[in-house]
DNA sequence: GCCAACGTTGGC
DNA sequence: GCCAACGTTGGC
């Protein structure tokens, strides 16, 4: 299982919105960047872990965790002329944009602000720090443990690092 | 296939 | 809401 970080603007769609969604699950639509698309389409697998990052707020932070609950599939909003995600270059035969379903797992006790990650040497190689524009980021196991140790100290005991689905 | 113009992102 | 950085587009 790999760990990813998905960015979202909380005023558009927040972790709380995911928690309140039917089945606490939503299709992660709207990704319109090729590198992020390639990861969604080619690398992300059902069951992978997802950290949710709130961008553009007053204190942009990693706020919690979700799980991938589907294989990648074409983002349906690309086919809908009435939707802001519409892409006239896409067709059902040749979809251009992909998404996965994600299910809410947990809200961290202590959100981890970008400003703090920037200050800590152990996060110097975080994509969020190096390439902040990329909306689908890859997180190493070591980075995940370090994030969890700051966000959910009591869960970061060795061997007990994965919160159960709630 | 270069690169200038343009559009978008996202921290501040 | 500003604006710097970055990604995309399209003329040549």
UniProtKB/TrEMBL annotation:
Matching SUPFAM superfamilies, A to Z?
Answer: PUA domain-like (SSF88697)
**What positions does the domain EVE occupy?**
3-149
- This protein is called EVE domain-containing protein
User: According to the lineage, what is the superkingdom?
Assistant: Bacteria
- Region spans: Disordered: 68-92
């Amino acid at each position: 299982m790999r760990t990813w970080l998905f960015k979202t603007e909380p005023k558009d769609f927040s972790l709380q919105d995911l928690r309140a969604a039917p089945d606490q699950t939503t299709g992660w639509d709207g990704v319109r960047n090729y590198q992020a698309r390639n990861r969604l389409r080619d690398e992300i697998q059902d069951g992978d872990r997802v950290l949710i990052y709130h961008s553009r707020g007053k204190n942009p932070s990693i706020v919690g965790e979700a799980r991938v609950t589907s294989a990648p599939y074409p983002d349906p909003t690309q086919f809908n002329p009435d939707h802001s995600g519409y892409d006239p270059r896409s067709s059902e035969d040749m979809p251009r944009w992909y998404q996965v379903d994600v299910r809410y797992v947990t809200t961290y006790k202590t959100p981890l602000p970008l400003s703090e990650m920037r200050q800590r040497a152990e996060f110097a190689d975080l994509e969020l720090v190096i390439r902040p524009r990329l909306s689908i980021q890859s997180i190493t196991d070591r980075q995940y443990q370090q994030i969890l140790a700051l966000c959910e100290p009591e869960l970061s005991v060795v061997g007990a690092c994965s919160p159960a689905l709630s």
